[in-house]
Design goal:
alpha/beta; 150 residues; globular
């Protein structure tokens, strides 16, 4: 699922993934819309989980931002759903909050289609744990960059 309040951006991201012919993609244009889709796609029979396996999540959205939505997803769904931040916003506080939510990637806009698809493919190959660790390692490197700038 792609979650971004900028309709054109969300649609381009969704189409980029969909054009591979390998994945179904839902698009949500707000945090509320995303939560509705997550709730509608819960697995039945008390087995837990969700049909939505990976979310590309923008940070800057009205009402509920992407980091607040990340916290809500982690609270309500645990770590079963992979989340990749996809945002133009990159600072130490956002990196801290994103990596504490165990994200599989943090892609900076404007995104590259091949980086987006690589994230999807690695995730569905079962490499999500190593992706979270790699993102956390990138965060540590970024922390050093932020300190040098600050």
């Amino acid at each position: 699922m792609v979650v971004d309040d900028e309709v054109d951006v969300a649609n381009v991201i969704s189409d980029t993934i969909r054009d591979t012919g390998k994945y179904e993609v839902l698009t949500a244009y707000s945090a509320k819309d995303a939560l509705d889709k997550l709730n509608k796609n819960r697995s039945f029979l008390g087995l837990g989980g969700n049909k939505i396996r990976l979310v590309f999540l923008d940070i800057k959205m009205p009402e509920v931002d992407g980091l607040q939505l990340l916290e809500k997803i982690r609270k309500d769904y645990g770590e079963d759903i992979g989340i990749s931040m996809l945002t133009a916003w990159e600072d130490e506080e956002k990196w801290d909050r994103a990596t504490s939510g165990f994200v599989v990637n943090y892609i900076k806009k404007p995104f590259k289609g091949d980086e987006l698809i690589a994230t999807v493919e690695k995730f569905f190959e079962g490499k999500d744990t190593s992706m979270v660790l790699n993102t956390f390692e990138k965060h540590i490197e970024k922390r050093e960059e932020f300190k040098k700038k600050g």
